Amino acid sequence: MLDLDAKDIGNVKTKESDAKEATQEVQSLQATVKKLEEQCAVEVAARKAARAEAESWKTKALQADQAKKDTEEEKVFLTKEFQHLMAQYEALKAREKKRVAALKKQLETERAVNTELLRDEEDERVSNAELHRDEEGKQEDDAEN
Q1: DSSP letter, residue 145
Q2: CA–centroid distance for 30 within its chain
Q3: What is the pTM of this model?
């Protein structure tokens, strides 16, 4: 019986030693699992941050693309508006040129008419002066006779 008890004690000690080793191994595995879980949590957080940053860049890229499209549309609109205004300016310039030419022609015509009127007045004055001289000469002749 003592043999059996010694064997049982040896078995118990062996089992106790095996249990301690198993417990240490389990604790080591639990520590490893905890480290791996922490690493996974860090990696998940890093992936979430990277995903959020990628979404932010994607949103910024879409906004930049939309701004570029809006700018192109505005450029096309302003170009058309500029061309329209230039056409209006050219038409106005042509009308003003015609108007100036017409006014210049009218002025030249009026100047010619005024010159003609001045000549006619001068001719009439000369004619009146000659008539007046003729009358004076006639009166002098009559007075002498």
Answers
A1: -
A2: 62
A3: 0.48
